[in-house]
Amino acid sequence: MLINRKLLVVVVCACLFLQSAHANPFVIVGAFSYVLSSIVKVIDHSQKSTVIVENHGRHHAHLWCASKDDRIGDKDGVWVQPGQSLGWSFHKKKNTQFWCTMDWYGRRYGWDVFVANWGGQHGRWVIRDDGIYNGDNGPKRMELESNIPV
């Protein structure tokens, strides 16, 4: 297992500090608390999550995806052709949420594609002619209707 440099620096500094504290219990507890919180922050920020929206349908999907802090693509959205996908990675925080809005031949659909507290694998979405699915075999999130026959 590779050790993150920040984590290594925090542990070394804590050990040196504890060595100079001469076993004062309050100092040891405070230093231990600081080291533990630093380790949790380093581990939490090193976890990357990914969202992928795949178009398995017969029509182009016009997508606008965003979070509170980030926009995927530009203000005009992203066109995802049949057989293609749109994907992005990000550092997950406890309140991370991404959503997408899609124009699908005259109708607009919107759904959450990633919410941090969902847990499990939920970042892969498949657009088919009849609906939007959570993964290949996952539940259908919503029905799609098209003004153009398939």
UniProtKB/TrEMBL annotation:
Q: Where in the cell is it found?
A: Secreted
In the record, biological process GO terms are: rejection of self pollen
The organism's lineage is: Eukaryota, Metazoa, Ecdysozoa, Nematoda, Chromadorea
Q: Which GO terms describe its cellular component?
A: extracellular region
Q: Does the keyword Thylakoid apply?
A: no
**Which stretch is the leader sequence?**
1-23
Keywords, A to Z, come to: Secreted, Self-incompatibility, Signal
- Which InterPro entries does the record match to this protein? Self-incomp_S1
- The entry's protein name is S-protein homolog
Source taxon at top rank:
Eukaryota
Q: What is its main location?
A: secreted
